[in-house]
Amino acid sequence: MKTLKDVISLKFKTSESEGVIFHGEGQQGDYITLELKKAKLVLSLNLGSNQLGSIYGHTSVMTGSLLDDHHWHSIIIERHGRNINLTLDRHMQHFRTNGEFDYLDLDYEITFGGMPFSGKPSSNSRKNFKGCMESINYNGNNITDLAKRKKLEPSNVGNLSFSCVEPQTVPVFFNATSYLEVPGRPSQDLFSVSFLFRTWNPNGLLVFSNFADDLGNVEIDTSEGKVSVHINVTQVKKNRIDISS
User: Fold this and answer.
1) Contact 49, 56 (CB under 8 A)
2) Start and end of every Laminin G domain (predicted)?
3) For the whole prediction, is pTM greater than 0.70?
């Protein structure tokens, strides 16, 4: 189809920082891709370029952050010619696409949750979306309902379920005086720790561990809202390493 206007809307939630939410492309080089990159939302659009290179249509816009928090986020894309309104969680961003063309010419399939393998380098480097979507609407068509009633051909590829599975995580709440102590791993030369955290306090100790044989210690804390790692080593000249993010 060749459209002058498009309205695409959906809601999603995910714990993954990368994944293709929506993709469509055409034989003339037109495409539209909505994806997560480093937990930010990226919309890439091309209404057409010419072979001489004098008209370059590729446009890319980034919005949002930390969208892999497993909370629902809503997206609305409204396009009229080269004018685009991109709304993420009620925050609207307006921009104009590059190039000189107004129509989006998509004559291949449109996919939600991933993109078909086309042999192009861009298709196999992109991850499929892993998470939940609801209220998918494309130019007035309720895609979620059509897919559930199997009114789309082909409707889905791979394992697609019409329910949203919640991750099995158990949070731990700490007050100002509590802490959790776990046994160390003696005779291991690797120290590895990972966790998610949420706090309103700008300062606090997150992790502390002494190394065996009085070799030093490692400390992870928040200070004025920034996460810092401090490694103290007793037996070398440069005996302290500080990393802040």
Assistant:
1) yes
2) 1-164
3) no
Tell me whether residue 164 is in a domain. Answer: no
Domain count for the chain: 2
The answer to whether residues 175 and 199 touch, using CB atoms and an 8 Å cutoff, is no
Here the tokens at position 138 are: 């494309």
pLDDT in tens, 134-192: 999 999 999 988 888 887 776 666 777 888 877 777 788 898 889 999 888 777 778 78
Are 59 and 42 in contact by the 8 Å Cβ rule? The answer is no
Distance between CA atoms of residues 171 and 35, nearest Å: 29
Q: Are residues 143 and 174 in the same domain?
A: no
d(CA 10, CA 223): 37
Answer whether 139's CB lies under 8 Å from 110's CB.
Answer: no
- Determine the structural domain holding residue 28 and report its residue range: 2-149
> Hey, how many other C-beta atoms are within 10 angstroms of the C-beta on 23?
23
